Amino acid sequence: MNDTIRISTPSLPENLKWVYSISQTLLKEIPLDERTSHFLLVAISEGFTNAVVHGNDMNPDKWVQMTFRIGQDFIRIEVEDEGVLPIHRDIAELTELAGPEEDSGRGLALIKDLVDEVSVETNSEGGNRLVFTRYFENQCRTEAFN
Amino acid sequence: MEINSIINEDYTTFQLEGRLDLNSSSEVKQRVKGSLDDGAINVILDLSNVEFINSSGLGTLVSILKDVRMVQGKLVLCCLAQYVQEIFEITQLSHIFEIFQSEEEAAASMVGGYVNASK
């Protein structure tokens, strides 16, 4: 299986429902168990939310583009927004878990825990591109939390 | 998200149903804050029908926890689904929330009875 699916949406929180619907349909087509699919959906929701809230600052005139790449043994999701990555911040800092009393700052940390690879870079338009990958053979990884 | 509130003598229970995410967070926060403004002090959040939570939902629960502390009250969570419980553990929020396996245990904690917390 080698497929690429792209979706684009204005930065509206209510479009998260649309992202869920498309993602769930897609996840049913790849060999993942229920737990892995659930946590991948959490990661996808975090990517979209991060792009809408932090990347595009909830501006509905700015768009979020999501690309789902499905290979033989992996699914890779790219989430692009029109924001600007804060300077002097690397992936380790961006994915650092917020303190327990903080209201925000857990999204990228959650993604890091739920997938196998994650990176943040600047795309060709000057916006942010968040990329995360889940390999199918590692789908028992979250069993460690049981 | 569906939100039902039940006012008891010692506490108010909010039964949530659906996904706790960017779309539903503000509604949950407003409902609980409204209850606190009306005089509620102790709050149980029954998450038995919350099948999905992400960082937006977690942030809202932390915010509610701080609101309840402001009125010298107590917030407890109960009945977390397995995957929701795991998200709490991954983010280490299971350490700052009192989490009970059943509503009965959560209710008992509000009236000073002995309970066996799940954490």
Task: Describe this entry's structure for a reader.
Chain A has 146 residues and is an alpha+beta fold. Chain A has one domain (3-145): Histidine kinase-like ATPase, C-terminal domain (Heat Shock Protein 90). Chain A has four helices and five strands; from the N terminus they run βααββααββ. Chain A has a five-stranded antiparallel β-sheet, covered by helices on one side. In chain A, a hairpin with a 3-residue loop joins strand 2 (63-70) and strand 3 (74-80). The radius of gyration of chain A is 15 Å and the shape is globular. Chain A starts with a strand and ends in an 11-residue tail after the last strand. The relative contact order of chain A is 0.19. The model of chain A is unreliable at 140-146 (pLDDT under 50). Chain B has 119 residues and is an alpha/beta fold. Chain B has a single domain (2-110), classed as STAS domain (Transcription Regulator spoIIAA). Chain B has helices at residues 25-37, 55-70, 82-90, 103-110, and strands at 2-7, 12-20, 43-53, 75-78, 98-100. A five-stranded mixed β-sheet of chain B has the order 1-2-3-4-5, with helices on both faces. In chain B, helix 2 (55-70) links the parallel strand 3 and strand 4. Chain B is globular, with a radius of gyration of 13 Å. Mean pLDDT of chain B is 93; it is low at 113-119. The A-B interface holds A 13-14, 16-17, 20, 35, 38-39, 41-42, 45-46, 49, 52-53, 97, 100-107, 109-110, 113-114, 142, 145-146 and B 19, 21-23, 52-56, 58-60, 62-63, 66, 83, 86-87, 89-93, 95-96.
